[in-house]
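The protein record quoted in full:
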Amino acid sequence: MSSNILEQKHHVSRDSRGKILGGLRGFRGCTVWFTGLSGAGKTSISFELEAFLVSNGIPAYALDGDNVRSGLNRNLGFSKEDREENIRRVAEVARLFADSGVVALCSFVSPFEKDRELAREIHIQNDLPFYEIFVDTPIEVCEERDVKGLYKKAREGRIKGFTGIDQEYEIPSNPDIVAKTVGISILDSMMEVVNFLIENGVLPDDLASEGGVRELFSYKTANQQKDILTKLPTVAITEVDLQWAQVLAEGWASPLKGFMREDQYLQVRS
């Protein structure tokens, strides 16, 4: 790095970004890194998770190996040096996403442990959470899937240095999660990651019940609720309004989580 480069400090704090970013307030910036063989299911889980988070008001963006190589890293090949630079660049981009308050979802083969540790270190140095998810799918299954036909080409010698065939994949020594995709749906694999992010304080607790009837009761103690309620604005409601609020809270209108005003209702009807 040039000695003439000086880091410029932002005027906006992460807490300030968290207050206006997404439907659920609070800073949730982090990077979730999916690693595994080609065809393991990394992108499938990542894209499913991205859709889940965004639909729940949490900003997220999925970075996929093919997509990145068609743009930002289009000048890189698949030599060991180029693979290392590919991961370094992606890690830096993910760090910027995470620093902005977005949940960055990275799905990359990233076969070398040293490169994955570098990606983690980039985040640690900037005080940002980094979670490594090893999508552990046997190579036999990956070859059966072979959606892109890459394993066939590698077996025929038309692709050199293909991970799992003539390029070693270094299994993560200490991943945060080992995700399976055999005998389990993508949705269930995704929810494992969701529950992990809830346990680590990235996501709110109520997302754990997604997929079933969702109750809207608070699990905070009475004293915690009292502290929160005293800071909120008040509005007068009728007994009927209260009954409708109870209907929502008990999940009878699931997945509806609120009321629509007339203009919103008309938009849905049109």
